[in-house]
Amino acid sequence: MIDGKKVLFSGMQATGNLTLGNYLGALKNWLTLSDEYECFYSVVDMHSITVRQDPAELRKRARNLLTLYIAAGLDPKKNCIYYQSHVSGHAELAWILNCFTYMGELNRMTQFKDKAAKHADNINAGLFTYPVLMAADILLYQADVVPVGIDQMQHLELTRNLAERFNNIYGNVFTIPEAYIGKVGAKIMSLQDPSKKMSKSDENPNGSIYLMDDPDTILRKCKRAVTDSEGCIRYCDEQPGLKNLIDIYSACTGKTPQETVQEFDGKGYGELKPAVAEAVIGVLKPLQEEYARLSKDKAYIDSVIKENAEKANYYATKTLRKVQRKVGFPDRIR
Ligand code: ATP
Ligand code: LTN
To answer: Which domain holds residue 289?
Structure first.
């Protein structure tokens, strides 16, 4: 609890360009939760280097992502928007938690298996212990709730297990966090292969709608989206491409999938696809405009970075000192 409010933590990696999946699965929920909770939204740049990055590019992307958080509507006076690498407590707590995590637990993580297969030439220890750093992110702020897409559930389960394990040994140190998964948009699939999630690291750019795509590109990608030959609009697992389009439309318009099916009853994919594009453009256009405006205001963004890093450090240090004391590290002499 901070000032009588429950705590929320979430983060995104500064790798690749954000997709509509990131927005609908994560960012959009952040906005709706931000009044109710004391929120920490991190640009998790330390996670990004688990795969090889170009340094200048990473720095640029990290700043763009931080700017995008604000452009999406998160007020940095109310929400702590900061770079993970500016708070050394993340790495320090991750080390301690590493010593409470079993190899077997990490071996089971599907994201590790996927990324290891994708980057077979660089299966580093950081990639393996990535979920422990994520647990440290969350536990450092004593978060009650963590809004993420479904793909992160396994990491969140591990975080809860680590927190419980630690608490069982040392008493009530960590808050046990809950995942928050939105009702619609929790898993947006690739427009080109609806069996895969829409991902910013997908090599095929037609599978993803990027948050910075212009209206023509969005329309083209929606029209080209892989569907089926059934032709009728239903919401079912047998028509995964169509189901995905209905999910996107519903998430962008605030309707339920059932309402969307009713709206398009008797119509064909030829009508649905441009309508999806229009709904997406309606969501992304204001975001893009605000992003363009904020990007030019260097002094403002710099001030956000500085002030929020101080705030994050304050809360992180509080938890870290407590944990260090529990495991038996000597007190600091002042
Ligand atoms: P990468 O492809 O580089 O692994 P990613 O697109 O999966 O990246 P992350 O930075 O790992 O993006 O995720 C940021 C947030 O977006 C997480 O909360 C994740 O659950 C959510 N998310 C990512 N992809 C989707 C998707 N297709 N649908 C819904 N939510 C998603
Ligand atoms: N692992 C997440 C990003 C992430 C995160 C976090 C999300 C890192 N630390 C803490 C929520 C809370 C991902 O790959 N999407």
So the answer is: 205-293
